[in-house]
From TrEMBL:
SMART domains: GGDEF (SM00267), REC (SM00448). It comes from the Bacteria. The lineage of its organism: Bacteria, Pseudomonadati, Pseudomonadota, Alphaproteobacteria, Rhodospirillales. The modification 4-aspartylphosphate is found at residue 53. It holds the Pfam family Response_reg. Gene3D superfamilies: 3.30.70.270, 3.40.50.2300. One of its GO terms (molecular function) is diguanylate cyclase activity. This is diguanylate cyclase. Its EC number is 2.7.7.65. Residues 323-458 form the GGDEF domain. NCBIfam families: GGDEF (TIGR00254), PRK09581.1 (NF007135).
Amino acid sequence: MSARVLVVDDVLPNVKLLAAKLTREYFDVITAYNGPEALELVRKESPDIVLLDVMMPGMDGFEVCEKIRSDPDTMHIPVVMVTALSDVADRVRGLEAGADDFLTKPVNDIALFARVRSLVRLKMMMDEWRMRESTSGQFGVIERSGTLRNESFERARVLVLEDSLLDLEKITETLKRDHDHVMSANTCAKALERALSDDLDLVVISLTLMNEDGLRLCSQLRSHERTRQVPILLVVDEGDLNRVAKGLELGANDYVIKPLDRNELLARARTQVRRKRYQERLRANYEHSLSMALTDSLTGVFNRRYVNAHLPRLLERAIDSHKPVAILLFDIDHFKVVNDSFGHTVGDEVLKEVSNRASRNLRTFDLVARLGGEEFVVILPDTDVEAAMTVAERLRNQIANSMFKVSADIGEVPVTVSIGVAVGGRLGDSSEGLIRRADEALYEAKRSGRNCVIADPRSDFQGVTAPAPAP
Ligand code: GH3
Ligand code: MG
């Protein structure tokens, strides 16, 4: 699917020119000639990016940008200001006022495609995260991540590759206004070594090195896992735009032209640092929301949702490989008495300690989950009924043999569990069936006086692939 670009300008030839360039690069282009029209299209057509003229009669570009930003439905759409203003201070103000980036007229093709591609990539990644988030059942974590513009751009760790002392000094002095750690290197090899041993937020690469090609570092950074995501800002001579195009193809994110304008260098560095931090935050939030969705918040062990997703896959593998998988379903005995006598808080303490004791002494690929209330399951891949009974008996002892410390006056309470064991892996076994069999065995254990282990009678299975007998 090609990205949809909204071009906004009050001058018809400007719109036509930009639209033609973008269409040639296979973007899907829509156009607007004033602020209100642009806002309507933004809401109706949800473009992937907006290229916005600043000077327009009536509502100017700054106002349009602010309105896009203040609407929760459109605030995540990237905006690039296209400005004829020759004063760099005003361009930078455009950035600070809400745009994600800026371009100057007349718009250079390489600059245009570089900015558009990089912002569209970011937006598509965010859309993907939003979608995953909604499938994992967690809503709003990405929304709560705030926006790109709220992200801090200061105190970054920046590495500069430049072998001209004069230029190096200018670049580092400028970047030090915003950033604490501005390091430098004068060869690709040294720069790469540094990048691989540091957590960099930005690498500035000069393409005017005396004896080397900075593009080499560009491609090396992209080929290493550790540096694949670090933003790259190229520094080039005006006449060298072909190598910029090559650099962008290799994965550089943006460029500035010599002689350097300090404010522009700062602004472009800020944009890149912000973008990197924002992406990291999105990823961290997503991973956090995913782990929240799959673990029990009280005890930290896996939850029922995880078991429902994981056990069928384990069982499938067990059937294919002719190896049994065992589950221990266990439930705290007379847990209601703990709650009734000492309160819910003490009950919770007992639940946590039961999870701790169950998690101890397991193999790395075994897992514990809380199915709900005071019912837990331990899943033991590649384990037959004899081994499972041994593990279950050990678990029962670990819980029954030493008192549980609690915050109630009494100081400690005795706790026991009853355990039902079931083993699956026969053709036709299902995870629901396996859990049901363990549940029946658990019921038997309760009936037999509690604090004991009972195996489901159909679990005498050593890896034979016969269909399970009808229940
Ligand atoms: P049995 O030996 O037959 O299993 O008896 P029991 O008392 O353990 O079982 P019952 O089902 O009668 O009571 C379970 C209790 O567990 C009732 C409920 O309030 C309590 N419970 C469920 N979830 C939680 C929780 O998250 N925290 C606390 N503190 N108690 C919980
Ligand atoms: Mg119970």
